[in-house]
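[audit] Reproducing an earlier prediction to check determinism. Same input, same settings, fresh worker. If the tokens differ from the archived copy the diff job will pick it up downstream; this log only records the rerun itself.
[audit] input (136 residues):
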Amino acid sequence: MRHIPAYKRIPRVVRFCIAGVLMLAGATAIIGLFAAPIPPRVTVALATDPILVWSWDTTKNSVTVIALPAEAVTDAAWGYGNYSLEAIWKLGYIEGRGGTLLTKSLAHALALPTQYYWGARGGEVTRTDDPLDYAK
């Protein structure tokens, strides 16, 4: 008498349904790993004079823009001490941290998580007469 594997005793239609459910669950898990949810707030620091902080509330779909003088002094992140925002931008490039030093310092000073930054490489702050030119 020939041995019949246990999975062959299950009707073919049921096997296909089980396989479909397992493939769907696997695909959902893979998509879930790579599809990051949109955070409730996205904040960008612009290294201009004045320093601009753009914050987009994704739940209310509203944008808030904060203009801070580049000469404003705050405590720099990671214990560097008190510096102007312009100096923190330059110090970030001197220390090899780039704009992350400015974003972390602003996040601490404003109690607003700042994920991204934009500005000229090399630590120079872009001068502008009208900060709202960036909004156009």
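[audit] rerun output stored. Observation attached for the diff report: The helical segments are 12-34, 85-94, 100-110.
[audit] end
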